[in-house]
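Z., the sequence and structure:
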Amino acid sequence: MGNYRLEELNASNIVAANSLTLKRGQEQFIAPPSYSISETYVNPTTAWPRVVMDGDTVVGFIRGNFDPENPSEELRSCLWRIHVSADYQGKGVGSFAVAALADEARKRGNKRLTVLWESGPEGPEAFFHRVGFKDIGTSRFGETIGEITL
């Protein structure tokens, strides 16, 4: 496992974040990083975008969303997107990023962190379960809703 750290998404790392590659088959389960990056600037008061660095290399991207007034309870404190470079998957980057987001959620007074995902053979379900999310339901669009109690 590397010596990872978080940095805010900024002009010096945005291109690298947008260029992260996934393993074959994963792209069907996640929107490209550019979607999340653009959403960050549309919703700057609720978005929490960070890159995961290993030395000078961007190896991951995570975007949390903190919107305590959202009518959908599962979107008030949630993991919106996570991308880990194919070369760094299985090396603790995703776990590190989720733990950092959970810490931020706690600091903001949240009691839980949620995530929504689509199921499938190359999908993220096993990862989300490994980092502590428990299935709590299904969204109106058919995605699984997972939750970590903080």
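The first strand starts at residue 4 and ends at 8. The beta strands are 4-8, 47-54, 57-66, 77-84, 112-117, 134-138, 144-149.

Let me know what you think.
H.
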